[in-house]
Amino acid sequence: IVRSSSSAKQSLLRRSFSSSSSSVPERKVAILGAAGGIGQPLALLMKLNPLVSSLSLFDIANTPGVAADVGHINTRSEVVGYMGDDELAKALEGADLVIIPAGVPRKPGMTRDDLFNINAGIVKNLSSAIAKYCPHALVNMISNPVNSTVPIAAEIFKKAGMYDEKKLFGVTTLDVVRAKTFYAGKANVPVAEVNVPVIGGHAGVTILPLFSQATPQANLSADVLTALTKRTQDGGTEVVEAKAGKGSATLSMAYAGALFADACLKGLNGVPDVVECSYVQSTITELPFFASKVRLGKNGVEEVLDLGPLSDFEKEGLEALKPELKSSIEKGVKFANQ
Ligand code: NAI
């Protein structure tokens, strides 16, 4: 265990922080896979978040350095690094939110499903530990293939008798971030004002941006909308190819992960009308897990929102994504139960 500074100094810091921010509740956030390509910038961004009082950085290697480094930043949270399975319990105990970017990323030519064999096992083990050491925490799953890792976590939680479907989230925020950026470029509108829901799942054609609902509205041709949809679906592959074997999206993913975690913390703290897209247990289609707009609250998912009106192109996309998403869900469920 590596603390960011001496314990005496820590307790002084803690006292001064708690008196200066007494209206903001204490929140412990754990990042599992914190020394990785996503984990490190995500740790940085969560250290900058004033809603976090305790930041727990877990990985199987290299967390002492990351924790020492991030811990020197003069913001609210206390940072502690934990390394190796022996320290996983301490990393998780008391966590309000657990973010999981642990696992291997894609290389050129790989689909997210190609990661299944390695990452499914990692997610299974980490989920068992969450069930044991912080069963009430919200879980933000980043590890791919998200379409399968979320059902895996759900099954592991069910076996442990603590599954709460309101607390398990697949992080699809990067798809939304990409859809907003690409749309703003084509629609020639200020990117900061853009909103685009993205539904379905988080792999290839299962990613379905709803540009017909995008705001500010713009009159884009069918060809442009088709190209924007494809670019959003292939955004991850664009980065994998540009990195040429050195991994997948890490910086934009850390941004997206930090954005979603912040929304979860705001929800926990009772901030009203916090809505983000996420891949959650759902009844809005016949599929048991589906990404759509979700209202976040004190218990996690407060409401899974309707899809709203879809264009004919989007209706086709929705039907086309269902078989792949269904089989990815089934693959996850099967793995967790074997
Ligand atoms: P990376 O290889 O740079 O980092 C992964 C980290 O996980 C490493 O530090 C490794 O030591 C750690 N790790 C491995 N097994 C672990 C275990 N049992 N417990 C804790 N930590 C463990 O990979 P990167 O680029 O950070 O990607 C991580 C995951 O995020 C991949 O599965 C990737 O596909 C996924 N991803 C998800 C996105 C999304 O939109 N949801 C976007 C981009 C990547």
From TrEMBL:
Compartments, as annotated in UniProt: Mitochondrion matrix
Location of the Lactate/malate dehydrogenase N-terminal domain: 28-170
GO cellular component: mitochondrial matrix
Alphabetical GO biological process terms: malate metabolic process; tricarboxylic acid cycle
Name listed for the protein in its UniProt record: Malate dehydrogenase
UniProt KW Iron keyword: no
Binding site for substrate: R106, R112, N144, R178
Molecular-function annotations in GO: L-malate dehydrogenase (NAD+) activity
Family per record: Belongs to the LDH/MDH superfamily. MDH type 1 family.
Self-association and partners: Homodimer.
Pfam families registered for this protein in UniProt: Ldh_1_C, Ldh_1_N
InterPro entries: L-lactate/malate_DH (IPR001557), Lactate/malate_DH_C (IPR022383), Lactate/malate_DH_N (IPR001236), Lactate_DH/Glyco_Ohase_4_C (IPR015955), Malate_DH_AS (IPR001252), Malate_DH_type1 (IPR010097), NAD(P)-bd_dom_sf (IPR036291)
List of catalytic residues: H202
Ranges for domain Lactate/malate dehydrogenase C-terminal: 172-335
Keyword terms, alphabetized: Mitochondrion, NAD, Oxidoreductase, Transit peptide, Tricarboxylic acid cycle
EC assignment: 1.1.1.37
The reaction(s) this protein catalyses: (S)-malate + NAD(+) = oxaloacetate + NADH + H(+)
Species, as recorded: Brassica oleracea var. oleracea
PROSITE patterns: MDH (PS00068)
CDD domains (UniProt xref): MDH_glyoxysomal_mitochondrial (cd01337)
Annotated positions binding NAD(+): G33, A34, A35, G36, G37, I38, G39, D59, N119, I142, S143, N144, M253
